[in-house]
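Quick one: structure tokens for this chain, please?
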Amino acid sequence: MKSAKTLLFALLTLLPVHAVTASEPDRMNTVAAIEGTWALAFADVKHPDGTRTHDYGDAPKGRLQIDHAGHYSLFIFDSSRPRFAANDKKAGTPSEFRDAALGTSSHFGTVAIDPMKGTLTFHIEGATYPNWEGTTQVRSYALSGDMLSYKVPPRPNGDIPLTGWKRLHID
């Protein structure tokens, strides 16, 4: 009887340790591999004819931040967006508002990767483009060292946005 109690105690004591250890590889295959702060390396578009152009100007700026739980925020800006002439956000012209909206892509929510399928999945909670809010977007991705890149699903005209991020390191 005493040995049965000892065995039960040992199992109950070691089981939580095993559960934590068993989940660690799962975490490494999802969020941990992409956790951190990333600087935009490129934001291009591949056209149906095979040509590739810059989607957010010649020198786009951006950040992607992903925490240990998979919460993310993503910002891409066309650095050539014109400033508003009135120096007042509420007093922009229709053209200024259009350029500001089309020169920006920002969203936040949660993200996960599936290395077996080669997919990166964004669960979008909020976005500068309101139609994305509450949606799930799946992208094929590649992760090589400090470089993360992915393809956005094709647009209605057949263009395929291509985005690349370089991991930033704390010095």
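The longest strand covers residues 36-46.
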